[in-house]
Amino acid sequence: MYHMKSHPDSFFSHNSLLKIFAMILTVFPSISIGQDSSFKDIENSVIKIYTTQSAPDYFTPWRLLTPRQSSGSGSVIEGNQILTNAHVVANASYVQAQKHNDPQRYLARVTFVSHEADLAIITVDDPSFFTDLQPLSIGLLPEPLQEVSVYGYPIGGKSLSITKGILSRVEQQIYAHAGAYLLAGQIDAAINPGNSGGPVIVDHQIVGVVMQANSGGRAENLGYFVPPSIIQHVLKDSSDDVNDGFPDLGFRTQALDSPAAKAAYGLQKGQDGVLIIKIFEGSPAAEVFMEDDVILSIDDFDIAEDGTIRLSEDLLTDYKHAIDMHHIGEEIHVRYSRDGIERSTELKAEKARDNYSLVKGEQFDRTPQYYIYGGVLFVPLNMNLIKRWGSDWSRSAPVSLLQMRSEWSSPDREEVVVALQVLAADVNLGYHDWRNWVVESVNGRSIKNFSEFANLLESNSKDNVVFENKNGYQMVINHSEAIESEASILQQYRIPAAQSPGLFSTH
């Protein structure tokens, strides 16, 4: 349901993403909170979180990057739960929680994570931890220009701190942690790296969880928080401990603000909507919609020509939000036009697939897939790999890989396979300098996904295996030599196994 004009998803132009790309927070500018009694309940309910994070290295996927220690903040909510950011606990191997004015650190564990909403829930099993803590409730989205307070712990200090700001606007934003496109609030306040997961407070209630700040030097005093509607969606989703996430009906659209285009697709005077330009096979939309249909409304929200809906008198946002607020299994009412004839239908909200784009979004708390054959390291292309080129990955990553982000997946091609590097050996002479090479076919057979690719090599009975890219360039590996040299190559490069664990049981 992403809007092509306003939604720079992973398969759209990266320029839009750069405009809002955010750095993950660890510290806010600190204004010490005194011991005023009006702050006591909030002070005690804001928790400092310590984590040791060990992320996998997607350049050498059998290894972990150097573990790093970091800290963030969280707030106590009902049910002996602590609400924080997902990026605070992503890839965490060890988590601790510390109360205000308490030197003891308690062992904590993650109970639920929504990476797309950048929210996580942790708890402490020691029952004494929550004894003197009052859970904070989730409030309503503040009005524009309303003052809000953000609580948290700065780097290098253990004292609770606060910053104040004004809610300047609310609209769909790309969440920096996992790249989802969801509703977010913007705070007009100076925000520096730090204090991830700190609650945004109005009238002693949580009205947001700060997640990111604007970076790049072109804007100041801009911070973003997860609003109450997204928080409540995640909390309800967490009730069964299964992360269903936000639904996706399986179509993509573009704005329809051209008068000529409106007339071409049969819209009458006063009718507005968005044009369906892609429908994914097997999705809820596949049996109902056709390309060139115009979506007029979702539930009770009429869609404007720029793809927005009106949530209130002062709040417009992308129509995708109307779908986001549903949970899996619910019915979504859609009114649409086909060839000038208005129709309506009910679609069941289904869990979003991770392969609408050929390049899967960034994933966390998972072991990377890889397969080594003839000393060539093959991996599936995803955003974890692309971001391994550093913070400036949109310029430093290979163009051939970046271009794949704009391509749709299909039943015949769900993933991209990349020959990432060649571990120099006699079996692969002539290819030692080949890097980041997209494989289109194996022995003339197109590749559907990485699991199928690995199985093709495992079951190969031909003398040679020919890998070919879209331009016709070929890499040829003798099969028997590949088998015979495997053990020595693994030993020489100190690699524990020729393939990632569970590779042949993932599909």
Descriptive labels:
507 residues, alpha+beta, six-stranded antiparallel β-barrel, 11 helices, 15% helix, 34% strand, disordered N terminus
Structure description:
- The protein has 507 residues and is of the alpha+beta class.
- The chain is built from 11 helices and 30 strands.
- It has a 6-stranded antiparallel barrel. It has a 6-stranded antiparallel beta barrel with strand order 3-4-5-8-7-6. Strands 15, 16, 17, 18, 21 and 22 form a 6-stranded antiparallel β-sheet that branches.
- The chain is flat and about 70 Å long.
- The two termini are 26 Å apart.
- Mean pLDDT is 89; it is low at 1-35.
Indicate the structural class: alpha+beta
Q: Label the overall shape.
A: flat
Compute the CA-based radius of gyration: 25 Å
Largest sheet: 6 strands, antiparallel, barrel
Low-confidence runs: 1-35
Condensed summary:
Helix content is 15%, strand content 34%. It contains eleven helices and 30 strands.
How would the blueprint of this fold be written?
Blueprint: H1 14-20, E1 22-24, E2 31-32, H2 40-45, E3 46-53, E4 68-77, E5 81-84, H3 86-89, E6 92-98, E7 105-114, E8 119-124, E9 147-152, E10 161-174, E11 181-188, E12 199-202, E13 205-214, E14 222-226, H4 228-237, E15 251-255, H5 259-264, E16 274-279, E17 294-298, E18 301-302, E19 308-312, E20 315-318, H6 320-324, E21 331-338, E22 341-348, E23 371-373, E24 376-380, H7 383-387, H8 393-396, H9 399-403, E25 417-422, E26 437-439, E27 441-442, E28 445-446, H10 450-458, E29 464-468, E30 474-478, H11 479-492
Antiparallel strand pairs: 1-13, 2-10, 3-4, 3-6, 4-5, 5-8, 6-7, 7-8, 9-10, 9-12, 10-11, 11-14, 12-13, 13-14, 15-16, 16-17, 17-18, 17-21, 19-20, 21-22, 23-24, 24-25, 25-26, 27-28, 27-29, 29-30
